[in-house]
Amino acid sequence: MDKSDSPIGSSVKDHIGADRTRSAQYRDTQDRLRPFEEIARMVIMRRAQLGLTQQELAERMSTTKSVISRIESGQHRSGTDTLRRLAEALDGHAVIGFEFDSKPPSTGDFVRL
């Protein structure tokens, strides 16, 4: 590894951008996981707002702490039933919609789970 390969002295954003440029596999993996990372951030923030531990959230969902940990890692896909139960455990509702032709969806394009 030479100095030009080192992330030291560069921002995380710059380092990720460089990795995206160099590796199609990295780019594809990052793009595939982006929605799950966004869900993870929402779950972590909401759980913190409610003052819940991962164990307490797991109990509300009738699941295990390891399931919550995997969801919050943003590295795993979650099915619609899991997302519905997760939203309810966080005192919310899961909503699924579709986008077509790059137009933003209207409220009629969403289904509450």
CATH top level?
Answer: Mainly Alpha
- Taking the alpha carbons of the first and last residues, their distance comes to 49 Å
Percent helix range: 55-70%
Low-confidence parts: none
- CATH fold descriptor: 434 Repressor (Amino-terminal Domain)
Q: Which properties best describe this structure?
A:
5% strand, globular, mainly alpha, 113 residues, 5 helices, 2 strands, two-stranded antiparallel sheet
Topology:
Elements: H1 12-22, H2 24-50, H3 54-61, H4 65-73, H5 80-89, E1 95-97, E2 110-112
Antiparallel strand pairs: 1-2
Helix pairs in contact: 1-2, 3-4, 3-5
Structure description:
- The protein is 58% helix and 5% strand.
- By secondary structure, the protein is mainly alpha-helical.
- The protein has one domain (11-112): lambda repressor-like DNA-binding domains (434 Repressor (Amino-terminal Domain)), CATH 1.10.260.40.
- The chain has a two-stranded antiparallel sheet with strand order 1-2.
- Helix 3 packs across helix 4 (65-73) and helix 3 (54-61) crosses helix 5.
- 6% of the residues are buried.
